[in-house]
Amino acid sequence: MEKVSKPHAARMVFAKNLRQVRRLKEVSQEALALQAGLSRTYVSEVERGERNVSIDNMGLLADALGVKLKELLDPEMLKTL
């Protein structure tokens, strides 16, 4: 029987913060992907917490949105927006 793994909490924090910031800045997934040099499908999977995103790609996404990476990793960020 195949084990289904639950996404790690840190991955979900990043995913939710990324989506929230992207929407607040009114940037489409496609535009974010283009700016970061990634595919739209990849960005979508990251935002849903399905992709175990590398630290390098996390940095590319943060830069593309004009925010600090540490903000996208802050579990309290969503509470202050």
TrEMBL record:
Keyword presence, Lipid metabolism: no
Occurrences of domain HTH cro/C1-type (ranges): 18-72
Record field: transmembrane: none
Domain of life from the UniProt record: Bacteria
One MF term in the entry's GO annotations: DNA-binding transcription factor activity
Keyword tags: DNA-binding, Transcription, Transcription regulation
InterPro entries linked: Cro/C1-type_HTH, Lambda_DNA-bd_dom_sf, TransReg_Diox_bact_type
GO CC terms: cytosol
Transcription listed as a keyword: yes
Gene3D superfamilies: lambda repressor-like DNA-binding domains (1.10.260.40)
Name the record gives this protein: XRE family transcriptional regulator
Organism name: Aquitalea palustris
